[in-house]
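Item description
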Amino acid sequence: ALCCKGPSPARPEYDLVCIGLTGSGKTSLLSKLCSESPENVLSTTGFSIKAVPFQNAILNVKELGGADNIQKYWSCYYQGSQGVIFVLDSASSEDDLEAARNELHSALQHPQLCTLPFLILANHQDKPAARSVQEIKKYFELEPLARGKRWILQPRSLDDMDALKDSFSQLINLLEEKDHDAVRM
């Protein structure tokens, strides 16, 4: 007779919002995590939702398009989010970096997001013009702005899948901590 211990325990699911300017690599990163073919990746206009499976959790990621005409609607999609993924192009122009900085500051201060854990991915680290994490931390003024908040800033490129998964594992840890805090109250 087949014997088993019953169904495996359900993995917790977390609803996340993923934001960043057009070209930062949001779609490519999420597609890579979902083992989708890179040939089929098209820049997101509007929004898309992906269930990204991990060993200890499932992340339901609502990716919002980064075009100027869509950014003004981002806040319409924040409700119900339990965490934030912000992707920036660390090799972008000064103007684009300034725009990304303004959007991140806006997100960190938004009433529906300000208490949530943030994973900030400094993408395109494989490009020669990429800024280091220290440069980005200083330029984005993360230390004073995000004081008291739970956030992670990680350098990333699509070439290093293990490091990308590790970044998301760290975010899952922050989400689990928030769950445990809610249970204790």
Summary: Residues 161-184 form the longest helix (24 residues). The two ends are 45 Å apart (CA to CA). The CA atoms of residues 152 and 170 lie 8 Å apart.
